[in-house]
Predict the structure.
Amino acid sequence: MKTTTFLTLLTLLSLPVMAQKKLFTINDLIPGGSTYYAHSYPATKYLAWWGDTCIELGIDQCQSTNTPIGAGDAVAALNTLTLKNINTILSANGRKTINHFYNASFPYAEKPYILIDRDREQTLIDWVNQQVVWKADLPIKAHNEDWNKNSQSTAYTIDHNLFVLTADGKTHQVSADGSTDLTYGESVHRDEFGISKGTYWNPDGTLLAFYKMDQSMVSKYPQVNITFPSDAQEGASRCAQLAPDPYPMAGETSHKVYVGIFNPQTDKTIYLNTGDPTDRYFTNIAWSPDGTRLYLIELNRDQNHGSLDEYDAQTGEKLRTLFTEDNDKYFEPVHPIQFLPWDNTKFIYQTRRDGYNHIYIYDVAGKLVKQLTTGKFEVMDVLGFNTKAKTIIYTSNEQNPLQKNVFSVNMKGKRTLLGNDTGWHNATLSESGKYFTDKYSSPLIPRNIDVVSTEDGTSTNLLSAADPWASYQVPEIKIGTIKAADGVTDLYYRLILPTDFDPNKKYPAVVYVYGGPHAHNIDATRNWGARGWDIWMAQQGYVMFCLDNRGSEHRGLDFEQATFRQLGVEEMKDQLKGVEFLKSLPYVDGDRLGVHGWSFGGFMTTSLMTTYPDVFKVGVAGGPVIDWHFYEVMYGERYMDTPQSNPEGYESTSLLNKAKNLKGRLMVIYGGNDPVCVPQHTLSFMRACIDANTYPDLFTYPGDGHNMTGTDRIHLHNVITRYFNDHLK
Amino acid sequence: MKTTTFLTLLTLLSLPVMAQKKLFTINDLIPGGSTYYAHSYPATKYLAWWGDTCIELGIDQCQSTNTPIGAGDAVAALNTLTLKNINTILSANGRKTINHFYNASFPYAEKPYILIDRDREQTLIDWVNQQVVWKADLPIKAHNEDWNKNSQSTAYTIDHNLFVLTADGKTHQVSADGSTDLTYGESVHRDEFGISKGTYWNPDGTLLAFYKMDQSMVSKYPQVNITFPSDAQEGASRCAQLAPDPYPMAGETSHKVYVGIFNPQTDKTIYLNTGDPTDRYFTNIAWSPDGTRLYLIELNRDQNHGSLDEYDAQTGEKLRTLFTEDNDKYFEPVHPIQFLPWDNTKFIYQTRRDGYNHIYIYDVAGKLVKQLTTGKFEVMDVLGFNTKAKTIIYTSNEQNPLQKNVFSVNMKGKRTLLGNDTGWHNATLSESGKYFTDKYSSPLIPRNIDVVSTEDGTSTNLLSAADPWASYQVPEIKIGTIKAADGVTDLYYRLILPTDFDPNKKYPAVVYVYGGPHAHNIDATRNWGARGWDIWMAQQGYVMFCLDNRGSEHRGLDFEQATFRQLGVEEMKDQLKGVEFLKSLPYVDGDRLGVHGWSFGGFMTTSLMTTYPDVFKVGVAGGPVIDWHFYEVMYGERYMDTPQSNPEGYESTSLLNKAKNLKGRLMVIYGGNDPVCVPQHTLSFMRACIDANTYPDLFTYPGDGHNMTGTDRIHLHNVITRYFNDHLK
């Protein structure tokens, strides 16, 4: 009774307020929209560490944050670190000026130096003495710049060749035969196994390890550029141009990767003596602290056997295999080893061998010293160390499967939560690891920024951003759990009610799905991770639903590996549990269910529409995998093995075989030049449907890749929304 | 009153009958449908001339038709011309047997020889003496076979190289360096200028003129094959394959064409000494009756100046230019000269120089002897000659702009209508030209076949096919004329009422449009040329309308050239006159107008939707031209000149510039490998609409070319129909 009265009162009070609240435009909600940043993006601060001093990077000046840290003359001199002063120095030295300090950094803890890097001009300025102390100019075509602060050398690539610019201003050309088929200094293995770059300086910046990849034996996917480039030469043909892209498909011939080490002092390159690199993955490169040895984790093509190997950086010879790791399904190393700053004989190794990703300490002989963390949670990332306290700072979801919090662990395995215990945290350690900046949000916190001590956990708040949606009609967003199709596992869902919700009405509902590994959709971020499009659809009168099925990330190895060799099958069973739940809601019209997803979610959408043709009336599948035969070797074979060893898995999950089942309205959308889920997926599905006399719809974004960005993303979501409005409303 | 009573009576009488009549399925109506031939295609006969004897080609036997012609022992022996006998002979000689005689021919008037040509095995059989008199085996990969009955030599191509198989069984390789870039013996100039093949035997088959085309300098359109071929080699990649197609775009570098002459007796090839072939068209190849000289019509790249040139077939030297022809807009020769059989010094030349295509007689010195036909009608085709009567047999639309009838004209210019004076006639002359087989239909005649004398016009009916739609509910199909936008010219329209028409209802209406040159839609064929899809849509409750605007064929040069340098502009104005008329009909709902067309009609559809965005609510554009910049040199520059010389014409007709105007629902459909209107058209339009924030829909048929055939055509028309049902109904 009391509750009711209270609610009624609230309703009466809030009604006039509600009436004044605004509705969203699509441009408010979707990245790329003209008002997205103004209306959806919480305020933020740009921060950088200078040693253990936290600097706020402003437009007109840099200043020490109002935190207990940072002192001394140089900090005091920060008041001279103004845009005007820096630009005066830049101009006087013939350098490009800057418009703000957002990209500046402070590489040397002990020196009042600010590094400005603009349009490939690097300038290190002593702001106390107001002078340039070092500078370097990279060619305008340089990419993949990798600067070492100790040697002040920069590695970079131009047209797939590798160069090094040393502090003396000398340019060293490491390779000359680079091409699309033969790359130097670029990421390899299609960015799998945690690889995101192709150069690795040793600590003092005297040796550069780099990847070389031979793709000449790999099939070229014939991408086509249909737009006449604005920089085309006079008289150039307007005819569409071929853009061949090496793309090894599952079970087919893959590329070969080599690891080189370049010494700028001798201008010599050696390659690790690995033997024939065919069907081998060289991943997770790390240097020994003294810079004389290189570590990598080698993985076989089947991805069920790995070894941590040590190589001599001078000779390239293999010194030893420290240990190996096997898994019945697949073994996926994504974290290079990290040496303990206080003990050069020990390092961190992360593995999910006990079912969850945890931190292990090994010695350089390859002997396990200790499993440092343990429990049914995932260590997400090791941020670094508090050298003095000898603690490791990391993030994990120990608090809650939906959260990501910062912890320290000492060498005895004692874990301590650092900072706010809710929400989802992105932290950056200071030089000594004594502090970290902690940017976080939670369902009720749009964005907070704290500076937190890794020693005593004390925290200073720098920002508590206002809710940018405070003046908008925001639909109700809830989460909860249901049981997976295995009857045991809890799965998290997010449910969004229509903006103008009336519990006595029946609404159409749309399931948004991803469902693949390495990703999740529901977490304890702002609004439980609700997407702008969810809100847009809620405003159009849809119930929006999302469920992280088995196979998605952060729930442990068994949860992920439940889908092995038959991607989509268990995932769909879980999604159908979500549908059961949706249909149980009195305000959901079970005859008007839709589904939408992109990439793996496009695969899921198309799978659901063709496997359970009576469940969903309307689907929109974006950039889908249609047949794992067409997906690349590294990701595809990890989860599906090869078509040769798992023919039944490939056949049973192929949507070409299920095209005949399509009954509802399904639109498939693809980026015209998608290099990830190549257009062959969508186009083969169209062909299969045509041959089977079924009727999908289609849209494409010519020139776009796997995802649409900028205004194309607005257009895309208008297309998706219109499709549901046309057929589901 | 009397009429009314009569109609009422009719209605009363016919109602019960009507009620019993069937509705069509889409498979009944569209070519490619499983029941199309059974339910929509009128009965026919397969006929062939043996001299002046008309033979009916059956399944089990061939027989003389019941006509006044054909006599003698050999004709009597036709009763031995059974499938059983012929297959016995074929088998005995190790040849493939046949299932019917439909493809047989009788090349020698004086001899009882039947030519069987199956799977590249040619066999000439004497059916009186029951023996093989000649045979030849072509390689299984042979294409473009061209047999000369006098020398019994066959020219053919394999992989763009030219070969000749002579009667002695010897294979002569004419070229060895053929490739996609360098073709021999294939059609050139993209089949424009009436060119449909690449080999031309002289009359006695001793010299072979052939086309050679160098396309190495032409842009390659990157077509992509996405389907894994069933004949792929073991271990071949499943990755999509590039299929580059030389495609010269308007204003860009074009191919170079050469004319060679091969002499199988000497194994020598000479090439016509034309000089540099850059930007020159060599068209309309013809031989002198004695086979020593070659004639061709050369055209400049601007296509406004042509010359009839004579070359020496032994030396390749040019002997003379007989005469030239110019036109302010464009000159388009499509008929090679034809020598009079009774006078080797004179030939027929066809030209539209007086505004309509007519027959002119020239002498070999290039002097005009006489314009033989004249009047405001078009000579469509010269079928040949009655050698004895010295008359020319031709078809024209002199009777009516919508008809095509057979005429003879004597050397004095006296024209005589031959055979039935209604409808649309396809005729084949006998050897001497004394008779022709006349297959025709008219709005009320599904298909008749007569044998007609070219001398006295007497006619014998061989077939009067029953109406295959007699048991179906066929909608009312009417034609009429309205004035073009110029206020003067009569334009023909076709109007189809909904099957279950009720004059008191309001119906949505769909305009079907082509509108380009070289084609028309309304003629005096069966059902006024109504398309199966028109009937299908009428049955769905649409009024179907079609108008042959200015620019379309068979109405004279001025009518066609009204569109010069601004394709689409005048055509759309005429179509809007059609819309005015449609809207004046009380049963048409002017707020629910749709438009559909393919190829040039796709261009028209998209042009109409984006130029007059408030007129049409829904459009479906298939295989459209979007920007004439992307269309090929030969056709494109004829009507549009080059982008360099007519930039304003190209800009003002470009639908990339009009993409921003789109308001209604427009679906664009293209063949994934369309070599005519390359995918760049549709994809560029999608990109332009995305950039302009407008919202077309899209579909594609991967692997298909410019048109969909077979079951794809059924699928296509279901897609088109659904789109109108979704958005216009």
Notes: Chain B has three domains: 44-134, 138-226+241-336, 476-727.
